[in-house]
Amino acid sequence: MFAPPASGTDAAFELLLACARLELGPEQERRVAALLAAGIDWTRLYELGDKHGLRPLLFRHLGDGRLGQIPKDIENRLWQHAEQLRRRNRRMEGELLSVLDTLDAAGIPVLAHKGPVVASRAYADPALREYGDLDVLLPIGSVTRARELLEGQDYRSKFPLTPALEQTMLASRRQYHLMLAHPENALVELHWRTDGDYAVERSSEPGWWDRLPTVDIEGRPVRCLPADEFLLALCLHGSKHYWVSLHWLVDVAELLRKLPADAWPPLLERARDLRAERRLALALRLAGAVLEISSPSAVHEWLKGVTGAEELENEIRASWPRLDAPHQTARDRLRLDFALCDRPGQRLRHLGRTVLLPGVAEWARWPLPKPLHFLYVPLRIASLAARRLAAPGTVFR
């Protein structure tokens, strides 16, 4: 039987971990009941749930009082958040369908990514996943047309660019999405790659768009990434942000529970091709150690051959109970970025892109004519240096 935490341990965080899953098994139920009986700092639990995006799961498992009573004010706050999230996510799903309809009607191939797709694939419930925006993936040649169509529905670019600079952005190795904001609805990100450095989609393969699976959103089939590419994309996204929020790991864990056996070989092969094995290994190690996700024996052996992930796992796990934001200094984040790289050459490329390649902030701030675009590199360096001197802890990505 699960024993309550010893004096001095963080019972609130232990309870958060115990509830960080879609379904509780008998062992998890005993664990939750013992923690509740031992006493919880409820304010801290709520703040941790807020920080890690896990308030919906806390309410799912604690709201009915079946495993132990919780304070009425905490129960009311969790219920209120769950109801607001349910209504908001329904509106977001409706807006996603509207965006997809607009692009489909124009003959633009498009799929939905993250957000509502995670809610459906991992939880089968739109009210159990917090997300802030809507992501869609489309061919790079259709981005400008898609932007124009959505501007006709009152979306506006968060960083307006001249036509020449928009083409420069699309050609940049650093950029992979364009952000459009609606004054009343949502923030939509038009992706032409899932990531700037690790694009998991095999969209260059003939027939890839025609073979895509679908997920149910409000009773309608919506195209999405195949299971292996989708899971890898979420693992890479979590590592890019150093897994500062546990809800990203819960997403991965719930998808791993549903991953078919035949999806493992292409998943590992794609991670190897992208030189992202350490990032995938980190996600699998975290999910196994914290959320009791077991991997097939062949994957377990593969994990043994990936070096460098254990140290990262320990550092990330140590940061989770903190209520402040970890990894805030530029030095810490650059160190972690380097540690996540499989090979030394990736570190040099990352450093070069971070320092030398301009981004939408520079392009929107200084809309230079095309003959002067070469000036963006020194402007980027000068801007980074000035901001670094003004705020030594600031991180620029």
Structure in words:
The chain has 397 residues and is an alpha+beta fold. It has four domains: 11-70, no CATH class; 87-225, Beta Polymerase, domain 2, CATH 3.30.460.40; 229-324; 330-390, no CATH class. 54% of the residues lie in helices and 7% in strands. It has 18 helices and seven strands. A five-stranded mixed sheet has the order 1-2-5-4-3. A hairpin with a 5-residue loop joins β4 (177-181) and β5. The longest helix has 34 residues, at 72-105. The termini are far apart. The model is unreliable at 1-8 and 391-397 (pLDDT under 50).
Largest beta sheet: what is the strand line-up?
1-2-5-4-3
CATH hierarchy class name of the largest domain: Alpha Beta
Mean pLDDT: 92
| Amount of helix | 40-55%
What's the N-to-C terminus distance? 47 Å
Number of strands: 7
Shape: globular
Number of helices: 18
Explain briefly what this protein structure is.
By secondary structure, the protein is an alpha+beta fold. The protein has 18 helices and seven strands.
Write the layout of secondary structure elements.
Layout: H1 11-18, H2 26-38, H3 42-51, H4 55-62, H5 72-105, E1 111-113, H6 116-123, E2 134-137, H7 143-151, E3 156-157, H8 163-171, E4 177-181, E5 187-191, E6 214-217, E7 220-223, H9 227-240, H10 246-258, H11 264-273, H12 277-291, H13 297-304, H14 309-319, H15 330-340, H16 344-356, H17 360-365, H18 376-390
Parallel strand pairs: 2-5
Antiparallel strand pairs: 1-2, 3-4, 4-5, 6-7
Helix pairs in contact: 1-2, 1-3, 4-5, 6-10, 9-10, 9-11, 9-12, 10-12, 12-14
